[in-house]
Every structure is written in C-alpha cells, then in structure tokens.
C-alpha cells in the first residue's frame, strides 16, 4: 500500500502545474482539444532538442503542450512553468525578436503572423499556428487570452531603475540574462565581460548606441573583481557604479552620443 501511495504521489507531482490547469471543453466548447503532453527536467530535450539547456539555465520546471483545433485553425499551445517570475520573463525576452504588434492582450506581449508570446508570473506562453494569416493571428491571441485567465497573482518583475522617468518609455526592450547561454542569446557583445564570473543575473536595457544594465553578482568578491576588470582592461565607453555588495550598474555609450548625458542623469538620480 505504501508503494502504491508513493507512485500516486509521484504521478501527481509529475503532472500537476501549480497555479495552472489544462485547456478543456469548458474553456472552448467549439474546439477540438487534444490531451496535453508534459515534460519536466531534462526530458525537455525530447521536445526541443538543441534548445533545452537555455530553459534549464533560466530555471525550468515543467512544460505543458496542447494542440487545439479551433475555428478551422490548428494551434499549438506551449506553457512553460519556470521556477521564478524572473526566469519566465527572461525566456520571454530571449524569444521575442521582431513583433508585428505589442500590448495585444497584456503589457509587452508579442504578436507575429505565426506566434503569440506572453509571460505572466512564472509562466512563459507561446501559441503557434501554421497559417500565418490575419484570422490565424487573431485566434492565436484569443487562445493566449484564455490561457492568461488561468494564471493568477501576477506581479511586476521589473527593477525600480527601469520604471523611472525616461527609461520606462523603453521598458518593452528590457532583457533578463541569467548565465552564459542567456547573455549569448540576448547580447553576445557583452559575453566576454562575464567569462570569469559565475551565477550572475543581468537586467539589460539596450537602446540606440546606449546599454544600461543592472547586474547582480554572487558575492562582494565577485563584484569587486568585476569592477576591477572594468577599470583596468575595458573600453572607455563603459561606466560602472556599485550599488550594494552584490549589485552594480553598468553603462555603455559611444563618446559622441548626444543622448548620453540625459541617461546618465537618470542613473545618478537613481543612485542618490
């Protein structure tokens, strides 16, 4: 009996999403809905061979995949449950490139001809269609809205620095990097700055010829090492400020950038 109970518990753990439930006929009565497939841990390799390590680096928990045929369009819903809100936003920021539309349903979501993408809480959601026509785009977003309604208690993940005047106008460009693969996918130009650093987290706002990053390192020793590197071996266009023992701001701008001064004033105001 104890063995049977253990098996039941393991099944529940394997297939239960905390705070999310699968799509069924009650959600979309006129749709044909396939049973979900689920992946956890390194089994993600079985679904996205070649790309799973990036998700694992950001803190992957589980993935639920469902195919839904609705209004003549075949849709595939991918619901990634990450271990943190930041991880979900990070994966969203890695995957979002050129969006046809933003703010379709939720702030900073992304709509393209073949895909609707959004993050909410610790979930990254991708709805894919194979048609790419306007009606398929609309249905993808409709499904995205239904999926979002299943997710509760969503809070803002953005650091205060980026919600200040001037920077908040560019918030949709904000990226979150966690680890080597993250920075290689988001901003490869900076990957060499972190080759000797471990367990870093970077909130990066890339603007036209200006990059503003809030960096969290493992400990005070890592912070001091990084700042020493910046002073002794890096280009003059970098400026840095230590905020706490583990946090710092890194700023990059070309010397002839006419907008540089106003962004520097924002950073200096934040530090004060």
Describe the structure.
The chain is α+β, with helices and mostly antiparallel strands and 272 residues long. The strands form 2 sheets. Strands 1, 2, 3, 4, 5, 6, 7 and 8 form an 8-stranded antiparallel β-sheet that branches. Strands 9-10-11-13-12 form a 5-stranded antiparallel β-sheet, sandwiched between helices. Strand 3 and strand 4 form a beta hairpin. The termini are far apart. The N terminus is likely disordered.
Uncertain runs with pLDDT below 50, 5 residues or more?
1-16
Percentage of residues in strands: 25-35%
Average pLDDT confidence is: 88
Question: Based on DSSP secondary structure assignment, what is the total number of beta strands?
Answer: 13
The assigned structural class equals: alpha+beta
Q: From N to C, what is the helix and strand string?
A: HEEHEEHEEEEHEHEEHEEH
Largest sheet: 8 strands, antiparallel
Tally of discrete structural domains: 2
Shape: elongated
| First and last CA, distance | 63 Å
Number of helices: 7
Radius of gyration from the alpha-carbon trace, in angstroms: 21 Å
Helix content: 25-40%
In short:
The protein is built from seven helices and 13 strands. With 272 residues, the protein is α+β, with helices and mostly antiparallel strands.
What is the fold's blueprint, element by element?
Elements: H1 2-15, E1 32-33, E2 37-40, H2 52-58, E3 60-70, E4 73-82, H3 85-95, E5 101-102, E6 110-111, E7 115-120, E8 123-129, H4 134-149, E9 175-178, H5 180-186, E10 201-207, E11 210-216, H6 220-233, E12 238-242, E13 247-253, H7 260-271
